[in-house]
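Table 4 source record.
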Amino acid sequence: MTMSNIQLTYSHQLTKCDPQWNPVLIIGQIRHLSSLSFEVFKNKLEPRVSEEVFTTAVASLHPTPTDSCPLHLNVATIAGLPTKCSRHNTPSRGHFITKIVKSFTGTTDEYIVLVCEKGDAFASACAVARSFSLYSRKSAQSSSSSQRRVTVEFILVNNGGEALTEVDVTCFSHAAKGIQLAASIVDTPCNEMHTDAFLAEISKVGEELHIKPTIIQGEELNARGFGGIYGVGKAALHQPALAVLSYTPSGATESIAWVGKGIVYDTGGLSLKGKTAMPGMKRDCGGAAAVLGAFYAAVKLGFRENLHAVFCLAENAVGPLATRPDDVHQLYSGRTVEINNTDAEGRLVLADGVVYAQRDLNCNIILDMATLTGAQGIATGKYHACIVTNHEDWETAAVRAGINSGDLVHPMPYCPELHFPEFASAIADMKNSVADRSNAQPSCAGLFIASHLGFDFPGVWIHVDMAYPVHCGERATGYGVALLLSLFGRASQTGILQAVSPLGAPIDDENNHSMTKKNTPNIIFPC
């Protein structure tokens, strides 16, 4: 990948700087900014900004939904976040933080000061990371060797004197690296980010974590029965693959799998997409990219349970070997699928992935993440992914984790007895696409994956469809990394991830860290 020259760092304390040489952007809610005196900020603003100017600027802010005021030319700015926040939004106002940072970022070393409560610090830190896209093929930028540093500093309010620690900002740094890694993979076009290049990224992460990936590729997939992954990717120049990174610490009591859809490009196959629908399909690997970024950060920060990252990689290409509508494939589950739409390929690769996680890795908690359906955007929009799961408590926990992390999710119906008949086939166990496209498509697509585990699967299965949140405009967001870190934060050794996770009871010692009790999490709701 070709990367831009931005270095993002986090600090738990304010350092002295002159905004004339290092621009400063201060962001917060009006009630938080108004509660603080100029004395708190003067290290960042003097000698260019006086107390009178600062106080007047804060008083002038009237966010609708955001507002900003220059403090000194265009190098010192204060910005106000929305005053109100609905129950389905993140209290951090993370999406607005990202927009503000993107609109004010410059070309020199700069500082961003976030004024927030401690409970919003993780989501706010992740929001800043989403602002800085690393992938670039602009010739002017690639010729520059100088690196630009962006330092994010925090001022906590309503914290009872509690401050962020070095451990906390280390967590933010690893999470940010995971987010930017995921976004970079999604932004990279398929002529560079083909399946072999994606495998190289997986190997690079594995090398940094001292984990050797398991890779099954090409004809070996076919020989071992991975009919979903092989059938989707067999027509492409770069061969399809299933890759696994496994982290197995001593003392683990649970086995967790994160399964990512990694379609590096989706032409639709022989059910070819149109000229306006195909551009942007480099993003169809967003689920696998998020799993890789989250796995990196989770292991770096100390994960207490067995964690497996499963990557289902293929390019849905057109060629003499391409799967045809009417073909019948046998998937890794042993179940047969009549192909009635080659553009419904993501569920085929994921079905192989989740069964591998259950059968070969012995996982009892399986989450798959995918840019699966266009219907997700119709159902839950551009900011909320949709979730389908066999477990009500985990559904509730995922929604809360989305609010705590800024990667928002919203539940879809889980009702196999009503929705799975959409896949009925006269000649195979099922078709791969629904008969009625107006009947809860995001739920149906998820149920196709679950059917290969079996609807009587005794463990926890969670499906996250993030087709629209994976990008904002023409840039990837790194969606999914923060969500996974928050949802499974109780298995982390890092306190701030434990704090933003809604799962399980607080961890008092190393022997009390089971995420489930008979696969049922204790949900702790923040006040």
